[in-house]
Write a structure and sequence with these properties.
The protein is built from four helices and nine strands. By secondary structure, the chain is α+β, with helices and mostly antiparallel strands. Strands 1-8-9-2-7-5-4 form a seven-stranded antiparallel sheet.
């Protein structure tokens, strides 16, 4: 059998960066996985753990999906050919998915939010993105209230049992 099509049993996806505020700021409707086109120094920097997608977003330009405002730190051993930390990066997705996301943003006023950046078991950089609708202030308060109640309930059960 060929090694390419076979997943090794011991390898797992390695999370590099996570947008933890996304679940609080947005109501997430549908999730997608996208490949990301990177330069060599960017991959090396990701392996060192230098990534931040907290302020990033994705957009459709000329029929292509782009990741904007994601910060991948410069590679520590790079030379003058090092990459720009906040350059726009092309996301690799199927045409149907790109068209679907683009129309949802245009027609329904939704946002494409990056959730996590990781290496899949084959060692390729992937970005988990979601279609999200921005929450209003009262929605955020309700989320916080429910989270506090769950925390309090767990504390009561732990103390009692």
């Amino acid at each position: 059998m060929s090694r390419r099509g076979k997943k090794s049993p011991g390898r797992k996806a390695v999370r590099l960066a996570e947008n933890r505020q996304a679940r609080f700021q947005y109501q997430l409707l549908e999730k997608f996985e996208a490949g990301i086109q990177l330069l060599g120094t960017e991959v090396k920097s990701l392996r060192e753990g230098g990534a931040n997608i907290a302020e990033a977003y994705a957009e459709v330009r000329n029929g292509e999906m782009w990741l904007v405002n994601a910060h991948i730190a410069e590679f520590s051993h790079g030379n003058r050919a090092n990459h720009q930390p906040r350059r726009p990066r092309k996301l690799l997705m199927q045409r149907r998915q790109i068209d679907r996301l683009g129309s949802a943003v245009r027609l329904k006023g939704l946002t494409i939010v990056p959730l996590a950046l990781y290496f899949d078991p084959r060692g390729r950089a992937k970005l988990e993105i979601a279609l999200g609708r921005g929450k209003k202030l009262h929605d955020k308060r309700a989320t916080e209230k429910a989270r506090d109640w769950l925390r309090q309930k767990a504390r009561l059960l732990r103390d009692r049992g």
